[in-house]
Design brief:
Elements lengths: L10 H7 L3 E2 L2 E4 L13 E4 L8 E5 L7 H10 L1 H9 L1 H4 L2 H15 L14 H8 L12 H5 L5 H24 L3 H6 L10 H14 L1 E3 L4 E3 L8 E2 L7 E5 L6 E5 L10 E4 L6 H8 L11 E5 L9 H7 L5 E6 L5 E4 L3 H5 L6 E7 L5 E7 L2 E2 L5 H7 L3 H29 L11 H33 L2 H15 L10
Length: 484
Amino acid sequence: MKQVALPLEDLHVWAHFNDVQLFQASIEPHIMREDGNDKGGGLVAKSEHGPGEPLVAVPSELVLSKERVEQYAKADQDLKELIEAAAALSQNPRTAVLLFLIYQMTINIPSSQGRALGFNNPFAGYVKLLPHEILLPTFYTAEERKLLIGTSLAEALDQKLISLEREFDNLKAATAKIPWCQEIWWSECADCLTLEDWKLADAMYRSRALELPRNAGVGMVPVIDMANHASDRRYNARFEVDEGSGSILLVVRDDRIVQQGEEITIMYGCGGACEMIFSYGFLEEHASSAREMFLSLSIPADDPLRMAKIRLAQEAPGVRIYVDDSDQVRWESSFVWWACVNEEDGLDFRVEQTIDGDAELKALWKDKALVTDTLQSILLQDRLRDIFVLRAVVTVQERIEAQGSQLAESEDHYISTVRSDQVRESVYGPIGKLRGLEMKLLTRAYETLEREKAGLLESKVVGDYLAQGQADTESPAGTPDDFS
């Protein structure tokens, strides 16, 4: 759709007319980084502020969340029709807001492009003031995506693009028969709704949504969402909910003083380097660690119970590698345990009929019903615990080795072939840094798992198990045990 945009300089006018209070703080369209590059708009203190002092106050009715969308739908028949038709999307907090954002974009289309929709509200103006070019990976070119090969971001981006396309297709199918949607969105005109518009709404939400304190949920908070990110040691402000009015307040951290002319910053989250680029499009200037990675895992193709495991496993099919507060590399995965046990260990499946006559797949552990999310705890209490842990460690280590090899090989096969004139420097710099940080984390993780494996191989349980397996192999009547 044809997007209507207003300069960021107009945000202070929008804030004034919508009762947003700025306490000796200003909205600046250009903030310079330490390296001299412009990082866009931000908030700056106009005077000194002490610990706990307010910087910005935003009325509760300006918090854009699923609940706010539902309230607007009660007074807007066109929006209500959209929300009800796309019920599968509107029930999710994120996609409910995305529906509302593209609805506001549609309202902003000049009247000559389609019939008038809805009514004037603060968010129609707010959307005009949001950037319509957002440097997130979902907008990378084909050449820029080559830079991601071997990183954890590559697979995350692939899955995200598939998800966005599926959501857009569902939106089109759900609203195809709504007259105004057919007329404005799906009429094959030059300004009809496209996947790029849905991706833009997603980028707006993903890069600005805040997880509010005191169970206030997740939402976009105008003006406060202008605050830029700083690391956990550098940010100087936090947000809270006012108990009386419900307003969202941006206040100075309890251990900080914000000087006149200083930029007001918050910490966006505690995710790793991949998450920072995925959701916000940049890396911290002082980032020295990838902090965490999520790598996919799969059940081996030759596992006879593979399909049953995939069907019943409720956990994300992967492993999280991370650095803890003591700078030690750790791993966690609930899914890996499904790959570590089979029928000879005590895992089994059976199909039962429900009272409605439907077939239902059930998991068993040593002939007892197994609640699928308890498999890990059961294995860790089993007498063969060290065997199962060793299998898990080997599985994770092999996955880390494969990821590291792909990352290293892609340096020669892909990165060196990318033409500098086809890749934006704002993409090349962060991705190059991400590649280095992830290789460092993968190397540390591999070494950590090697030490874990060595310790487990000294276990008496493991020694006895391997000895028994060797004896069975050498016996004419025995069959080799598949330890892998």
